[in-house]
Amino acid sequence: MMPHSSEDKSEDKIAAVRWGIKWKLISLMSIFMMILVAILTYIQISSQKKLLEKELDKRIAIMKENLIERGESFIANLALQAEEHIAAFNFTAAMEAVKDRAATNKEIKYAVLKNAVGSILIHTGQSELSAENLSETEREALLASKVTKAELMEEGGTVIEIIRPIQISTEPWGVLRLTFTLRHLDREIEISGNQIIKEINMMIFKSVSTSLGFMALCFMIVFFLSAKVTKPLIHLAYLAKKLSKGDFSVSLYLPELRQNPSGDEVGILAETFAEMSLALEESYKKLEEYNKTLEQKVAERTEALNMSLAEVESANKKITDSIRYAKMIQKSLLPDPDNIRTFLSESFFIWMPRDIVGGDFIFTDSFEDGFILSVIDCTGHGVPGAFITLIACFGLKKILWDEGIRDPALILKRLNFIVKTTLRQDTDYAFSDDGLDAAICFIRPGAGTLTFAGAKLSLFYVYENELTVIKGDRKSLGYKKSDLAFNFNNYKLSLKEGMSFYLTTDGFADQLGGTHRRRFGIRSFQELLTEHSSLPLEKQRGTLLEAFYGHKGENDRQDDVTVVGFRL
User: Fold this and answer.
1) List of domains in the chain
2) pLDDT value at position 237?
3) Is the pTM of this model over 0.70?
């Protein structure tokens, strides 16, 4: 078998392009015409169907009217016979007349003859008779001396009920009620409905046939027009293929397209294509010249980049080492668990910065009459948050030892002043706007009391399996908008055996997790505390961490996480 030449391959590609453009255009136009014809056909069929359904409704109404007219005529004659027999006190003859006449009319389901007190003389649909009160409709017909009609639902289908009063010497005696079945009428309606369905099906067949014929005609017209329109475009695609292989002489083949009879647009496209080929040829020459020096420049840049990367790695290592050393300094500010157990034997601490260093810290200090335990949440996390923790820590030491303040509410007020003035955020030219939230407890074991004050952080305690939340004041410390004159509130509790206390920042409750990335939530945190409050505190710590990491999953940590739990 002879191998295909490059010219044969080019011809195959051009043929593929020709049929691709043509058939895309044909398909698009055909789909448009099919949708248009389908919509018009649907509208025509729907309108005709509605007309036929209205015609069926009219037929049904007329047939019901005819049935009612026949029923009124029939009951009038039968009522006159019954009145004659009843006037002669011949009730047996009246009953026989009703029974015989009702049996001869196949449209009557049953007939009832009833006197004014409700006694039934005859009921053709029941073998056993009984006295019953007149119905609302029967009473209305008897009192008004007029015929009443109603369409009702009974077992077996819809019926039409006609009631005529029976009068003896102008005195009301009772009523005659005929109930007409619609079975015969339903059969006539079914026949009419089947006839209309046949007409609809025939109409659909004719409409679809006409639509298919019209679409076939449109397809042929679209096929002819697409062939005429796509021919110059296919030729232009052939020239573009040659240009892509580096043949910049394609402008020699374009004059015939400039004068294309299908319109000026293709001619303009051809001229633009010729200009583009010349521009590409010039660019190609410049590119060859540029490529000669490109490898040398790349080599030089790569060497310089490698040197820069080494410098970046070295600098990054130095920064990371510095931050890690800063973490050691920050951890030195945290309480030593062994020292804490000398005055707080039952306790646990969770301190997990989001980054190497964090904006949360725990502060404790002891005195002769008690000890201070506080949780601080500074602005942000990482290095900026760590700087604020240093200011807050030294501020607390100054307040407690230099100023001798032990009152938690007053400590918060003084700490607000120190942070704000240290960062000069009490001025108009301050660059920063940072601060912190805090929860401070002063515990006096000898007096059996705990005094709490909070700045947007709360105290939780569980006693006898019941959780209580003491919310801090909704004011933060140190920010530009923080009010230096604000007085925080103290909450004093009497200590009881078995009480468990908890302080936390918002990092635990704000952690996102699960497939929908939802917050853990303060309510879930409170339920967790209540459920496990009876466990030893070290086991409670493990339970909290297990719940936190189970909720977090593969999600990133949102914030620093700090939780403190203790019993007295």
Assistant:
1) 1-228 (3.30.450.20), 246-307 (no CATH), 330-567 (3.60.40.10)
2) 66
3) no
